[in-house]
Amino acid sequence: MTDIDVNIATIIKEEIAQLSSVTIDPKDIKDEAWVIEFGLDSIRGVELMIALEERLDVILPDPDAKQIEKVSDIIRLVEAEVKSQKQLEP
Question: pTM for the full model?
């Protein structure tokens, strides 16, 4: 993982912890954890994507709920979009 990837994963975990219905330290969130463990329903999932767009200054696609089951799924989606959009910058 590059430094950018690590930073993205850290930001995602911070946002999950903030939106979570349970109290958890972002450092304790494992990549393979199920998002449902943190109470991230569809509404909180949208809130998470909006928060990530604002923090990372990217536009994220609306994820298919079936594709986003684990924290690692979110990390993979966001990393791909960030890399894609950064390559398009002049």
Answer: 0.85
Dist. CA 73–CA 89, nearest whole Å: 25
Q: What is the per-residue pLDDT across 32-69, written as a single tens digit (0 to 9) for each?
A: 999 999 998 888 988 999 999 999 988 998 876 667 89
Alpha-carbon gap, residue 9 to 66, rounded angstroms: 20
CA distance 20 to 16: 6
H-helix or E-strand spanning residue 72: helix 71-88
Contact 69, 49 (CB under 8 A): no
- For the chain, how are helix, strand and coil distributed in percent, rounded to 5? 65, 0, 35
